[in-house]
Structure formats: structure tokens, C-alpha cells
Amino acid sequence: MAHLRFLCYITQVLLLAYLAAAYTSLSGDSLRAILSPGDDFNIETGKLLSPILQPRVPGTPGSTAVQNHFVNFFKTELPEWIIERQNSTSKTPLSGVKEVPFVNLIMTRDPPWTTPGFTSRLTLVAHYDSKLTPKGFIGATDSAAPCAMLMHAARSIDAALTAKWEKMQADGMDLEFEDQQGIQVIFLDGEEAFKLWTSEDSLYGAKSLAAEMEGTAFAAQSTFHNALSTISLFVLLDLLGDKNPTVPSYFPTTHWAYRKLADLEKRLRTLSLLDSATTKQGSSKRADTPFLTDFDKSDDRWLGGYIEDDHIPFMDRGVEVLHLIPHPFPRVWHTKEDDGAHLHIPTVKDWARLVTGFAAEWMELEGFMNASRPASNHDRERNHARNQQGNGKSEL
After folding, report:
1. Run of H or E including 210
2. Do residues 207 and 313 make contact, with C-beta atoms less than 8 angstroms apart?
3. Geometric angle at alpha carbon 35, from 31 and 36, rounded to 5°
4. Considering the entire predicted model, what is its pTM?
5. What's the rounded Cα separation, in Å, for the pair 313 and 301?
6. What is the pLDDT of residue 386?
7. Which among 57, 66, 278, 323 counts the fewest CB atoms within 10 Å?
């Protein structure tokens, strides 16, 4: 096992070096083509956000309703994406002998010519469960809004992915060597503690999924030896949606990716494409305060600390992580005030644009962001066939 983890580490180092060089910034025109979520983030009627703003404790009807919301969205609006769910059960400090069910949802889109074991994936992640207490807790920043951000990002780049990959095929490129990069969105269950946060009472879904992905082996000749090693970068969103967030850079090995995202934020602000600009007291001038403040973080400021969250089971297995969580936490953290009414919607929309732009730049979608057409019947049939084949996970 130690030997395999060392190989995974070496593969990740080489892959990240390649991706850092391949990352392609979007032009101003492409940045302008990133649409705002608009009314989809309305807390009462928004198609993406409002269905998530309900208690969704694992194993409850609210949790099932939100799972169905995610699945129906991807089935109807993003039919190119493969939908899987990974199931597990566990006892909790409050369940006695009863096993509580946890359901992780994994939505994946790969280039149409790729096969399992040869494709790395940018992985965008948020947890969708909510705390058991206080009673009626919603968790709008924690993490209903981040889930809606990921839905918007997936929808916003979908047509561009199709256009890019179809052009590559039409141009007769040597696809075996040109582009083996896909993308996946993961909605994790069971992040919250049921009683008191400990290493046992937390991260139920993440621990199960990381272990299963590590144990899902590919053929010996594959580029990646297991499903876990296909994650090129694990981008975890949490506690986002309050105004004036400050998000540090937590890990030196992914600081280059943090700098790419911070540079993207700067470009969006320069183009006046973000909504959360504040007005200085006593002045009519708008002053944009960046969310990502560690662009120039020096080597002597890496103190080795980090916030415990869903990335830990993956990071412990060698996965590189970009953790997008504010410090300090939102003022409503783990209180009943963490609801839709206390979200700062301009900030929520800005995070959605930032995540969309980062995914588009990672996937090298410059020149394709204005694409807007439905998927082909051929691709729908191909993905339906792949969904029927199965790969060890429960499929929808």
C-alpha cells in the first residue's frame, strides 16, 4: 500500500507540473461570456438554490429531496454528465445500533474518446448535508450556496466543453496525447458532526468515498492506477456566501492554483464583472475588496495549519487540495441565522462566476465560452450506454 501511495504521489506531482503549465487564462470576451446565475439564486424561487435551503440531515426526507434536486438538474439540463452515487452507512454517537445512510453524488464529464484509467479530472466539491442542531438548521453558507455555485459552474461550461472536444475531433488531432482531462462535481454527505466534532463523528461521506476511490483499481497499463489518483485538483468550497469573505491560501503545494484563482478574481473585478463591490464610507466610489488575499503570500507565512473539512481523507491519501473556506468563519456559522435571508446574494453570485471561470481556464476553454447549443444524440446515447455498464458504484 505504501508503494502504491508513493506512485500516486509521483503521478500527482508530474500531473500538477503539467497542468500548471497548461492552464490557459480566459480573454476579456470569454470572461464576459460567463453568465450570472440571475434569478436561479433567488432564495425563495431560484431554480438552483432555493430547493437546497431546507434541513438536510443524512437519512432524512430533506436529504433525499436535495439529492433528487441534484440528480434531476443534471439529468435534464446536463445529459452529457455521468451520474453516480456512492452509498455507505455508519453508526453515529446518537444513533445507537442503528446505521445511518450516507449518499455521495458524483457527476462526471470526460472527453468522448477517453477510457477509465487514462483521464485526470478537475474535481469540484461541496458537502450538502446540514447539522442536526440547532433544530431547523439550514446551513445556507454551510453549504447550500456552495452546492448551487457548483451546479451553475457545471452548466456554464458544458456547451464549451462540447464545442472544444468536437472541434478537436473534427480537426483530426491525435486525441490519445492531446487532451485527457475531464471534470467532476462531487456533492458529499455527512460532513457535519451529529454530536461533537471528532475524527470519528465527522466527514462520514468523504471518508467512505476516499477509501472506495483508493480501492477502485484500473488495468495495469493505465495512466492512473486507481480512481483516487485521477483527481488532478480537489477544489473544496465551504462556508461561502457571507459578505466580505477573506479566503487564505492554506497549502504551499497548491498555492500556484490559488494564485491563478486570485488573478482571475482581479481580472473580473477590473472588468467590473463582479457584483459585490463595496462603497467606501463617505465616498461615492466603489472599492472592490478581494476575497482571495494571499496572492503574494511569502514562504515564511506557511505555518502548517489548516481547517478540518472534507478534504482530509483525500489529502491524507496524497490528493492535492485547494480549500476555499473563509477565515474567520461567517458570523452566522452553526447558528439558525445561517439561512437564505442572511446570504449576501451578490457575493454568492460572484463566487459562482469565480468557480466557473477557474473551471473554464483549467479546462482550457478559451474561444469556446460563447458556445450555446444542445448536446448531440450520439453523445447522449454514448453516455446512456456508459451509465448502463456500471463501475462498482450505484448509478442513477
Report:
1. helix 204-215
2. yes
3. 115
4. 0.89
5. 25
6. 46
7. 278
